[in-house]
User: What shape does this take?
Amino acid sequence: MRAVDIIVKKRDKQELTREEIDYLISAFTADRVPDYQMAAWAMAVLLNGMTDRETTDLTMAMAESGDLLDLSSVVPASVDKHSSGGVGDKTTLVVEPIVSASGLPVAKMSGRGLGHSGGTLDKLESIPGLRTNLTEAEFIAQLREHGIALISQTADMAPADGKLYALRDVTGTVPAIPLIASSIMSKKIAAGAPAVVLDVKVGLGAFTQDLESGRHLARLMVAIAKLSGRKATALLSDMNQPLGRAVGNAIEVKEAIATLHGSGPADFREHCLTVAAHMLLLGSMVATVDEGLELAARSLDDGRAWERFRVLVSAQGGDVSSVDDPAGLPVAAHIEPVAAPRSGFLSQIHARRVGEAVVRLGGGRETKGQQIDHAVGVEILRLVGDEVSENEPLFVVHAATRGELERAKRDLLAAHRWSDEPVAPLPLFYDTIHSE
Ligand code: URA
Assistant: This one.
């Protein structure tokens, strides 16, 4: 087989066989297919799509490109979660400790920023010393001992996805539904949790911008989970405006810490409790979502979730004093509030544009492997539906240089839209899809 024939076949809108997909993925993993051919193939998939069967074959080929863990021999039950990618999405940092504090082990393999969307690993690495590159043996030992682990994709787990993910990030090929579904599910299958909650983002800052494509992605992932013998729930959640208030690595960690202490934004807290409740339900810790919400809220409010976060940080080598006093986290040289240019009701805060502005500030990558600046970002102060007066603070920019601060101000003001009429606030969730 030749990679070029497989690229041409997809370019010409034909369905690939399982053997062709297996060949492409194993040759790419073994460095026998170069990045430029894989990028051309990814672009052909983005333009021409894949059938559900091709997507399932791609998922299994990527999962099987490395080790497949089986966590059932490590802990009696565990649950995983994954977000399809958004702006300001620091949910994992709050939800994992809540679920672990509620008695259900959580084992998660997370990703880095992708395109305009942030990644949990980049956020966590704002904490001095914290390691996310645990080996499989360390991951398993930590899960057994502490019931909570959050790691990067090891070289041995779904390595094909690791390589393809980095390539997609810088070749404009992220928003292809089959590539997103197979990327997420190959990691979930490789990491071995028997149940997974999928937080599928929908809106301007998501890779699926309308509810229909969000539903398609959610159904596809739930079907793949079922096929591989796992339980899954997909939540369709809003990503038209950023989630929470902070967008940027260290400032998102600070917001997660505030939420774990009970002082984060109420809407972000509700989002986290809902995701946690579905994880607890899927992990059979509770019988209904309402019971899950109650248990999750208790674990958060009595401080146990915060203790689990500290355990996670310390188990992975992080400096616990820098989360006890978040002043120890990276801080940008220039921090400045920006005032509303007019009075009115906010009708849009374009999440993708906000994410792109943070990438331009240095908080995400524009080329493969680029170093990021953990300190930079933006804090959104007002949300869609809010009535705002002229000159009231609208957002705060955290930048490394004066010039970058000025550019971000312009980019961010352009991301806000106004109305003279009242505007309804955006919902947190749109729908839920279960595997059973
Ligand atoms: N998250 C992933 O892990 N992969 C994608 O392709 C998008 C979001």
